[in-house]
Design goal:
CATH topology: Glycerol-3-phosphate (1)-acyltransferase
Structural class: alpha/beta
Strand content: 15-25%
Number of strands: 7
Helix content: 40-55%
Number of helices: 10
Largest sheet: 7 strands, mixed
Strand order of the largest sheet: 1-7-6-2-5-3-4
Order of helices and strands: HHHEEHEHEHEHEHHEH
Shape: globular
CATH class: Alpha Beta
Oligomer: single chain
Distance between the termini: 33 Å
Number of domains: 1
């Protein structure tokens, strides 16, 4: 709640702005998605893209991008915060795979559900197969599917080892495969405590503090991956190594 104490007008103003944007998003959802008989997934991805572009403005996120932004296939990315989803969603239409708990979060849970997010119950091993089948169907229709194979968010000091279960569709298909690395910066704060959402943090106080930040600088590096996919566990290790490599790659001057 420190953001509310330090910058009450900024937090209240952004909360009102957020409420307004959610109202607009709900109306747009009814207009372009809710009553469609066909093409619902594509309509949801497009709705998410447009809504996310507005959401990152509310959150005060300024983004630099390096590398080609993928338009289809599987995108494997590190995971730091709930901010990751609107950040990536603002860059390209996509379908996300997220843990079941996200569905119950205020604001972002509604946002993720309406966008057609594929939710996975990590406590049920049998559920992974159903999620993999849903991902394979989406990849077969040339959608961009985003997964966070660390399985949880972190404080950003490193990238946690990748779990291989959700990489099964990529191992069994010839769809494009890309990796991404997200990093955040604050001029006057601690990214691990004020942007990253991990440990035993509680959503509402974290969001209020986040809304008190003057600006959040985000950098997203993308890279296509063309290696061997025959072994799912080896694929997880190689994709992790590629994301770690991106951590050491400078962002070119003039990146958007």
């Amino acid at each position: 709640m420190s953001g509310l104490r330090r910058h009450p007008l900024r937090v209240i103003g952004r909360l009102l702005w957020l409420a307004g944007e959610l109202s607009v998003a709900a109306l747009n959802y009814l207009r372009v998605v809710a009553f469609r008989a066909n093409g619902v997934t594509a309509a949801r991805a497009a709705w998410l893209h447009q809504t996310a572009r507005r959401m990152v403005l509310v959150l005060g996120v300024e983004c630099r991008v390096a590398g080609p932004v993928p338009e289809r296939g599987l995108l494997v990315c590190n995971h730091l915060s709930y901010v990751d989803i609107p950040l990536l969603g603002a860059l390209t239409p996509a379908v996300f795979v997220a843990k079941r708990e996200v569905k119950s979060w205020p604001v972002f849970g509604w946002f993720a559900s309406r966008a057609g997010t594929v939710f996975i119950d990590r406590e049920r091993r049998s559920h992974v197969g159903a999620v993999s089948a849903a991902m394979a169907a989406l990849l077969g229709q040339n959608f961009l599917v985003v997964v966070f194979p660390e399985g949880t968010s972190s404080g950003g000091q490193t990238v946690l080892p990748f779990k291989s279960a959700l990489l099964e569709p990529a191992a069994n298909q010839t769809c494009p495969l890309s990796v991404a690395l997200i990093q955040y910066e604050l001029a006057d704060g601690d990214v691990a405590e004020e942007i990253c959402y991990w440990k035993d943090m509680t959503f509402a106080p974290h969001l209020l503090n986040l809304l008190g930040q003057r600006a959040i600088r985000a950098t997203v590096r993308f890279a296509p991956w063309h290696g061997d996919r025959a072994d799912r566990k080896e694929l997880a290790r190689q994709l992790h190594a590629e994301v770690m490599r991106l951590r050491e790659t400078p962002v070119p001057v003039g990146s958007s």
